[in-house]
Each structure stands twice: as structure tokens, then as C-alpha cells.
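Ubiquitin-conjugating enzyme E2 T
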Amino acid sequence: MQKCHRLKRELSRLMENPPEGICCYSKGDTVNSLLATIIGPRGSPYEAGTFQLEIEIPERYPFEPPHVKFITPVYHPNIDNNGRICLDLLKMPPKGGWKPTISLENLLSAIQLLLESPNVDDPLMAEIAEEFRFNRPEFERKARNFTQESKRKRKRE
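C-alpha cells:
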């Protein structure tokens, strides 16, 4: 019951006053399955992109974090080819930083920030992290091209 009330309140807040470049809504009749869209941050190689994410809310929410993954492919050190995200806030303590006080808005904002500022000290994609560290221009070129290609594919569909 607490989960349902909290989710409805959070979704209502997100729809009424969304953070810049973020929107989130239920997939169907239930609040357990959500979709989110994040616009790539300005000044980043993802700037021209629109990224879709799936969010599954566990039964014990907010006492355990949502399961979030990118549907849109992303060339990023902390996002793998299956859309899984390596982000501290998506993990339970003691190894992670999830707290019941973190809202969906906070979580989506943190994911948007991760696009802007990858955490190469905790990568899912080690080769991309190395490229980010030692050949930033090449990383940015590939990330930009990947983002543009995803955009073109969506237009054709």
C-alpha cells in the first residue's frame, strides 16, 4: 500500500514538474512498470540523443531500488550492451548507495548526470573506460556517432 501511494505521488510530481530533459510515466495500468525518457545532456556526446529506459519497481520499493535499464543503445563506460547500468544508487548497501529517501526523480537525474560524467573507476565496459581515460576525442567521436545512429534507426522504425 505504501509503495503504491508513494509511486503515484512521485509520478504525479514528475508529470507536473519534470526535471529538464526527463520524463517518466507508467507503461500500462500498473505503476510497477515504467518508461522514462532522458534527453542527452548539453555539451556531452549524447546531446542530440533521446534515450528510453525501462524501470521495474520491486515489491519492497522504496526499501530496495528499482531495476533500471536503457532500451536505447548507448556507447558508455557504465552502460553495457544489454542496457544495464553500473550506478551506486541502483545497488543496495553495503556495496551500493540506495536509500529509501531517493525518489525516481533523483534516480533519473543521477542517470542523466552519469551520461554527462561517466564513472571510469567503476566501469561495466572496461575498454570504453580506457578509451575515455586515454583517448577522449576518440571516445567522444564514437559516442556521438553511436547516438546519431540510434536516432536514425528510430526514425526508420
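The first helix runs from residue 2 to 16.
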